[in-house]
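Checklist before submission:
- one chain only
- standard amino acids only
- sequence pasted in full

Submission:
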Amino acid sequence: MQVGGADTHRMDLSSMVMLKDNHIWATGSITNAVKQARTVAGFSIKIEVECQSEAEAMEAIDAGADIVMLDNFNPSELELAAASIKASLGAKKQVLIEASGGITEANAAEYMVPGIDIISFGSMTQSVPHVDFSLKIAH
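Returned file contents:
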């Protein structure tokens, strides 16, 4: 992946906190989930929150998230939400905005809209056939 210019989302579960719907439901709100994650992760680990709306993204940012993942937005919704979020933040806070959900190699260009910092799609790693090879030396 790295040879082709892609980057892994995270190397392992300790590399970054990713808060998804179950975490939010279990804690009662995005704000509670981010605050609880921050107490465990400390200041040096990034926190990302999966968001289904612009309002959820703003709540995550206000709570201290470093990255907001706009999940399952179509390209036009994504562009509007990203522009609105960036405009509302101005220069006061740097937050990365990630597009995710329904993005494939075939339609990725449609999601390359202003305001989006990261585009992710699982098919790069989840649907790729594996090569089975051996490093044994014949003797």
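Reviewer check: The chain has a mean pLDDT of 87.
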